[in-house]
């Protein structure tokens, strides 16, 4: 280190530039103090060099003889850190000068040679390029001409079409090409499927092979069949493996319950089990067992795993170990017995198990099951009872084992002594005893278990069996006692009990239960009505009609004047009871609510439908007495008479009705009545009179117009409609009739204007818009129709009928489906639209879907006659006989009244006396396709 | 006293040689004038610690009138400034004063000076160019 410090005593070299030797760089912290420079400045260095040269007496420009650029080159290669500094301290003397000169000479010589070489190479390259000109050069003159192209020319260059996208797509399409599977493969697959499974074969396989040997013909049907069989065998395999060995049933049905339980005790084939998984799980379980050997669950899991892996011996060993480690675990012993169930050791194991836990009911029962001979079983169970006399389950098993009722009785008597709180045992005993003794037993039971309602119910049923169900109010006492013991079950539970009694045939008990308990726990207010109605409905849904009947009976005793309750009760009787009981209920109902014309009409209708016209008349008469001048009853009477052919009588009735209950409806019915009978003149008279009283009744105006139309008096009809729409401008059907009249007369222009006025009077009405569109369409003016439709959909976007019109008549066939999808999104629930969708599917031969859509539409609105008609038409084409009959009866039950075509057909005087079924057929024929 | 005893660097060449000659130690050079009061105070402190830091640092003095070559390069305009070099690299130290390049006030606490020198040495050995001073001098001295 001290040697390093020698410099302190040395003199500094001449002309040394400070900092140059070590390449020092400065810094700038404060620009106000002046700029710092990087190391020694250029001037300083030059100055120093000049000084040194002068000192040596050399030419100052000694190095200037070289090229400027080479000087720069030299500097570029210099490393100022090292090279300058290395000899910077040294002295430049004569020897150095000479050495420099020699080096310069060498450099010069090398340069000369290089220049010669470069000149030669240039010449060669030029020669080569002349011989082999580049493409770029060939076109250089043309490229130069591009300079003269103006901006406009550039702008007007034609666009190159984008071919890349198309090309790509076409290439992809090429790649995605599908090839048919060779027939040989399919046939082979079919036959392989046959071998592996027990497929029912109709000899197709053998014929298949002969075909194959023939080789010239391909039987496509058989190939298809083979494919089906392969699929079927796969499915079968899947379902069998899922169902384990226990499921031997058919392939088509997989029992969900069985599937779950079979998962629990699944025994996989060795090939199916994943070996790696089993090994891993085995390690896991072994560590579980080692760390916690007193945990029975770990042992059981380990044994199950072995069983799953198919190693039944290992499983037995494992569980045996488990049993010795955890002798108090019932589960482990049960598992052990289960695993050994087919070996002779089972009984020994069971004995060991019971020795370890002699108070385990489950183990005793298991041990009992292992015995095959009844006497042995009895012995085991007696032993068990010695150990655990208070186990109900064991007593039950013991009683079940007894064949002789007397022995069973004895057993049960003993059992009830030991376990007096077991209701089941008491009930079993009572069932075995003679009726007299049973009563005693039940009394004892009641004392032992005062809180059990089952015993009370059993007592009540006993009374019923003895034929004294009505006399002794067992259940009344039951309710009192149970309430006192505060062990009263909830109302719903009582209803459940009642339903159970009904199921077992004890109808009187059922009724008694309802009677005593229905009001239990409910406040004395009107909520009860709703609650009971709901209870009854729930019972009906469960199919327990007696219970429901009892509920209604009780409810009606409380709410005598409730019309809705009576109706509900009548409904129940109509649907699930006899005609007599229905009459009874209705008679009671009209007595209770004489002011309710609905109930009266219902009664009259029922009587009439059963063919008892006189009685019906009588009923209506009574109804008149109670509700004088009620138009509904009048009209019902008229209907009754007219339908039974007593036209004069009906006419008289109508005349009286017009006087006594002069409503527009009565007048209208009168007019319709006359019109149907063909008395057009009378009808016209009536309608004129009626219009004087009720000028705002749109239906009367319509009738008048239609009568004129029928008579062929178009002018008068037009006049009628014109006045009608002035009187009742908001009636859409009137406007529609008016426009159709004009259209029928061939005056499309006028019809159009009528509809325009109608739309002004009744804005935002889908039917009017639809009629306008149809008018244009019928006139053959399709573009106009389309533009109108666009306007209409803007104004009334949620109108099904408009959408249907568009979908069926204004769209090309391919657009129908997307359009209907859009319509369904816009209008969620419209039966007309649903029917249209169904028809689209029908057209596409998707019959299942079509049917489901038809049914949806009918569920949505069963009153829509058109839906029924379409459905009928559909079923005529594709349905079975039963299906059609079923549908027709449903239709008749629902009595549809609405629908465009339906109304037109149903209201036609020609069809006035036809039944719903006939009308349905007529409408179906009428529908446009 | 310290001005007399500590080694002086008499020319730019000597300064450069001093910086280049040390391989393993920090080179601490005080630039200033020996007759200046601040310098005399600082030299006294440097002299006293010189022996205690000799294992990892060597201290030189340099008169900026005698050797003006570095005045512009290292901005030697203060009466007394101490610079640190390690293997021909100028070491910076963040004293919190805003000037990391040198210690340009009189630091009279010996232990603090030793700590600074040691910190710079340790940083230098790890290849750092800038270290943070163990103590913040931003409030102690203002210009």
UniProtKB/TrEMBL annotation, chain A:
GO biological processes: spliceosomal tri-snRNP complex assembly
Subcellular location: Nucleus
Pfam families on file: PRP1_N (PF06424), TPR_14 (PF13428), TPR_16 (PF13432), TPR_19 (PF14559)
Domain PRP1 splicing factor N-terminal: 12-166
The organism's place on the tree of life at top rank: Eukaryota
GO cellular component annotations of the record: catalytic step 2 spliceosome; U4/U6 x U5 tri-snRNP complex
PROSITE patterns: TPR
InterPro entries: HAT, PRP1_N, Syf1-like, TPR-like_helical_dom_sf, TPR_rpt
Segments of skewed composition (Basic and acidic residues): 39-50
Region (Disordered): 1-91
TPR repeat residues: 698-731
Start-end of Acidic residues biased regions: 69-82
SUPFAM superfamilies for this protein: TPR-like (SSF48452)
Assembly information from the UniProt record: Associated with the spliceosome.
Name of the protein in question: PRP1 splicing factor N-terminal domain-containing protein
Organism: Trichoderma gamsii
UniProtKB/TrEMBL annotation, chain B:
Disulfide bridge positions per record: 39-80
Keywords: mRNA processing, mRNA splicing, Nucleus
Listed InterPro entries: Dim1, Thioredoxin-like_sf
GO biological process: mRNA splicing, via spliceosome
Record-linked CDD domains: DIM1
Domain of life: Eukaryota
Any GO CC annotation of this UniProt entry: spliceosomal complex
Homology family: Belongs to the DIM1 family.
Primary role: Essential role in pre-mRNA splicing. Also essential for entry into mitosis (G2/M progression) as well as for chromosome segregation during mitosis.
Protein name: Spliceosomal protein DIB1
Organism per entry: Trichoderma gamsii
Lineage: Eukaryota, Fungi, Dikarya, Ascomycota, Pezizomycotina
């Amino acid at each position: 280190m001290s040697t390093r410090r020698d410099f302190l005593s040395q003199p500094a070299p001449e002309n040394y530039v400070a900092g140059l030797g070590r390449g020092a760089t400065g810094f700038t912290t404060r620009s106000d103090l002046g700029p710092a420079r990087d190391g020694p400045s250029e001037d300083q260095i030059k100055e120093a060099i000049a000084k040194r040269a002068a000192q040596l007496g050399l030419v100052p420009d000694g190095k200037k003889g070289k090229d400027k650029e080479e000087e720069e080159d030299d500097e570029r290669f210099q490393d100022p850190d090292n090279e300058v500094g290395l000899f910077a301290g040294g002295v430049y003397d004569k020897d150095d000068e000479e050495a420099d000169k020699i080096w310069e000479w060498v450099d010069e010589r090398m340069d000369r040679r290089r220049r010669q070489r470069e000149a030669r190479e240039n010449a060669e390259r030029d020669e080569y390029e002349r011989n082999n000109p580049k493409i770029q050069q060939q076109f250089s003159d043309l490229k130069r001409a591009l300079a003269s192209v103006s901006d406009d020319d550039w702008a007007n260059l034609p666009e190159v079409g984008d071919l890349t996208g198309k090309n790509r797509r076409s290439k992809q399409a090429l790649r995605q090409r599908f090839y048919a599977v060779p027939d040989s493969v399919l046939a082979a697959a079919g036959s392989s499927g046959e071998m592996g499974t027990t497929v029912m074969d109709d000899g197709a396989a053998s014929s298949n092979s002969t075909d194959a040997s023939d080789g010239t013909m391909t039987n496509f049907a058989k190939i298809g069949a083979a494919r089906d069989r392969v699929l079927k065998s796969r499915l079968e395999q899947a379902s069998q493996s899922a169902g384990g060995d226990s499921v031997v049933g058919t392939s088509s049905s997989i029992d969900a319950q069985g599937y779950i339980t079979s998962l629990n005790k699944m025994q996989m084939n060795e090939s199916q089990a994943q070996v790696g998984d089993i090994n891993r799980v085995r390690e896991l379980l072994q560590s579980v067992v080692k760390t916690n050997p007193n945990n029975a669950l770990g042992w059981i899991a380990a044994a199950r795993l072995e069983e799953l892996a198919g190693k039944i011996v290992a499983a037995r060993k494992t569980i045996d170990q488990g049993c010795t480690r955890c002798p108090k675990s019932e589960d482990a012993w049960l598992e052990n017995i289960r695993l050994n169930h087919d070996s002779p050791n089972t009984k020994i194991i069971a004995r060991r198990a019971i020795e370890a836990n002699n108070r385990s009911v489950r183990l005793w029962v298991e041990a009992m099951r292992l015995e095959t001979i009844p006497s042995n079983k009895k012995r085991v169970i007696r032993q068990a009872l010695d150990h655990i006399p208070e186990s109900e389950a064991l007593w039950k098993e013991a009683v079940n084992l007894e064949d002789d009722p007397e022995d069973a009785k004895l057993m049960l008597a003993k059992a009830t002594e030991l376990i007096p709180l077991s209701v089941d045992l008491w009930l079993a005993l009572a069932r075995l005893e003679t009726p007299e003794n049973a009563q005693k037993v039940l009394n004892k039971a009641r004392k032992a278990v005062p809180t059990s309602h089952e015993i009370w119910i059993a007592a009540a049923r006993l009374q019923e069996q003895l034929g004294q169900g009505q006399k002794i109010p067992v259940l009344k006492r039951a309710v009192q006692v149970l309430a006192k013991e505060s062990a009263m079950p909830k109302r719903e539970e009582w209803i459940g009990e009642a339903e159970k009694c009904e199921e077992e045939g004890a109808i009187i008990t059922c009724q008694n239960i309802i009677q005593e308990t229905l009001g239990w726990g409910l406040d004395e207010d009107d909520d009860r009505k709703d609650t009971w109605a709901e209870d009854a409905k729930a019972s009906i849904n469960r199919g327990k009609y007696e219970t429901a009947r009892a509920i209604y009976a009780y409810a009606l005793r409380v709410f005598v004047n409730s019309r809705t309750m009576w109706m509900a009760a009548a409904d129940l009787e109509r649907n699930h009871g006899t005609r007599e009981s229905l009459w009874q209920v209705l008679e009671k109902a009209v007595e209770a609510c004489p002011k309710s014309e609905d109930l009266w009409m219902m009664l009259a209708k029922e009587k009439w439908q059963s063919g008892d016209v006189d009685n019906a008349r009588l009923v209506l008469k009574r109804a008149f007495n109670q509700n004088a001048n009620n138009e509904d009853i009048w009209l019902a009477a008229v209907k009754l008479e007219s339908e039974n052919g007593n036209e004069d009588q009906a006419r008289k009735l109508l005349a009286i009705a017009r006087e006594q209950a002069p409503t527009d409806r009565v007048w209208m019915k009168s007019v319709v009545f006359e019109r149907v009978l063909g008395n057009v003149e009378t009808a016209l008279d009536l309608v004129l009179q009626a219009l004087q009283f009720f000028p705002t009744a749109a239906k009367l105006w319509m009738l008048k117009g239609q009568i004129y139309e029928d008579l062929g008096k178009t002018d008068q009809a037009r006049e009628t409609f014109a006045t009608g729409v002035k009187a009742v401008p908001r009636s859409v059907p009137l406007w529609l009739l008016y426009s159709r009249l004009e259209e029928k007369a061939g005056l499309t222009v006028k019809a159009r204007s009528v509809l325009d006025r109608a739309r002004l009077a009744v804005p935002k009405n889908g039917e009017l818009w639809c009629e306008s569109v149809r008018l244009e369409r019928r006139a053959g003016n399709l573009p106009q129709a389309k533009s109108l439709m666009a306007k209409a959909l803007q104004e009334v976007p949620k109108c099904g009928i408009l959408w249907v019109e568009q979908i069926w008549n204004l769209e090309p066939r391919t657009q129908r489906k997307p359009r209907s999808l859009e319509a369904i999104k816009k209008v969620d629930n419209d039966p007309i639209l649903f029917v249209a969708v169904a028809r689209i599917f029908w057209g596409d031969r998707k019959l299942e879907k079509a049917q489901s859509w038809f049914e949806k539409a009918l569920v949505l609105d069963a009153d829509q006659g058109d839906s029924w008609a379409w459905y009928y038409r559909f079923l005529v084409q594709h349905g079975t006989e039963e299906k059609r009959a079923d549908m027709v009866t449903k239709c008749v039950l629902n009595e549809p009244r609405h629908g465009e075509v339906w109304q037109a057909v149903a209201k036609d005087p020609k069809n006035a006396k036809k039944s719903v079924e006939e009308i349905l057929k007529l409408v179906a024929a009428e529908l446009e396709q | 006293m310290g001005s007399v005893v500590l080694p002086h660097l008499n020319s730019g060449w000597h300064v450069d040689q001093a910086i280049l000659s040390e391989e393993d130690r920090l080179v601490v050079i005080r630039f200033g004038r020996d007759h200046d009061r601040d310098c005399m105070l600082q030299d006294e402190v440097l002299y006293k610690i010189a022996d205690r830091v000799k294992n990892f640092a060597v201290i030189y003095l340099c008169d900026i009138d005698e050797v003006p070559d570095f005045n512009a390069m290292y901005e030697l305009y203060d009466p007394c400034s101490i610079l640190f070099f390690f293997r021909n690299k100028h070491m910076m130290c963040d004293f919190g004063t805003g000037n990391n390049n040198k210690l340009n006030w009189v630091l009279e606490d010996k232990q603090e000076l030793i700590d600074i020198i040691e910190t710079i040495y340790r940083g230098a050995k790890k290849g750092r160019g800038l270290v943070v001073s163990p103590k913040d001098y931003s409030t102690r001295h203002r210009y």
